[in-house]
C-alpha cells in the first residue's frame, strides 16, 4: 500500500502564471468601498493607498499587490481581456 506513493507523479508546486492571471482577472473585491468590483477595475488611487497603508494578509493581499504592480507598469491590457464579458466598471 505504501509503495504506491512513490509511483505517483510528483506534484508541481510552482504556480501556473496563466492560471494566476485568470484567477486575478475574475476576483472581486470582497469588502469596503469597492466591494463587488473586479480587482482590475479598482481605481489606481485605491491600490496606491493600500500600497502605502499595507496590503491585507493572505491571498487577497497578494492579488492586490500584483494588481498594483500591473497598473503601475501599464500592463492592464494583459488582464482586461480575461475579465468576464458581461462585466463593466459597475458593481456586479
Q: Can you give a write-up of this model?
A:
The chain starts with a helix and ends in a 13-residue tail after the last helix. The chain is built from five helices and no strands. The protein has helices spanning 3-7, 17-26, 44-53, 58-72, 76-79. It has 92 residues and is mainly alpha-helical. The protein has one domain (16-82).
Question: Would you kindly provide a brief summary of this structure?
Answer:
With 92 residues, the protein is mainly alpha-helical.
Throw out a few tags for this protein.
mainly alpha; globular; single chain; about 90 residues; about 0% strand
Instruction: Classify the beta-strand content into a percent band.
Output: under 5%
Cα distance spanning the termini: 49 Å
Contiguous uncertain segments of 5+ residues: none
Average pLDDT metric: 85
CA-based gyration radius: 17 Å
Whole-number tally of structural domains: 1
Tally of helical segments: 5
Order of helices and strands: HHHHH
Give a quick account of the main beta sheet: strands, pairing sense, barrel closure: none
What is the approximate shape?
Answer: globular
Amount of helix: 40-55%
Write down how many β-strands occur, each being a DSSP E stretch of 2 or more residues.
0
Structural class, judged by helices and strands? mainly alpha
